[in-house]
Amino acid sequence: MNAPRLNRRLTLEEAVRAPDGAGGYSLVWTARGILWAAIDPVTGRERAGESVTVSQVSYRITVRGAPEGAPSRPRPEQRFSEGGRIYLITAVTEADDSGRYLTCYATEEVLS
């Protein structure tokens, strides 16, 4: 495997329950760290809602490898953010046999 060009700075975020002051909770996204990544689009589609159109694009995001359980290793249900863009992580696997890189499959939805 050729070394990927990790030229995008992404923030790895995780949803954390925070008390809402009324006995319940709300989800707050908390930064877990900064990862450099290569982002490649895979597929895209568009669907119409009642008053908006939703574009959904799937991405293959490559980051440096990290051992299972490490806080720097992305997991499904976490997300990457890049400015105003949000990539929801759906799956993570090793990109090569040596474990030097991870491939994260993610989706981005945009309302228009």
Radius of gyration: 16 Å
Structural class, judged by helices and strands?
mainly beta
CA-CA gap between termini: 38 Å
Mean pLDDT: 91
- Count of helix runs: 0
Strand residues, percent: over 45%
Major beta sheet, specifics?
A: 6 strands, antiparallel, barrel
Helices and strands, in N-to-C order?
EEEEEE
Q: Segments where pLDDT lies below 50 for 5+ residues?
A: none
Oligomer: single chain
Q: Summarize the amount of helix as a percent range.
A: under 10%
What best-fitting shape do the alpha-carbon axes yield? flat
List the strand order in the largest sheet: 1-2-3-6-5-4
Q: What's the count of strands?
A: 6
Question: Topology, please?
Answer:
Blueprint lengths: L7 E12 L5 E24 L4 E12 L14 E4 L2 E10 L6 E11 L1
Antiparallel strand pairs: 1-2, 1-4, 2-3, 3-6, 4-5, 5-6
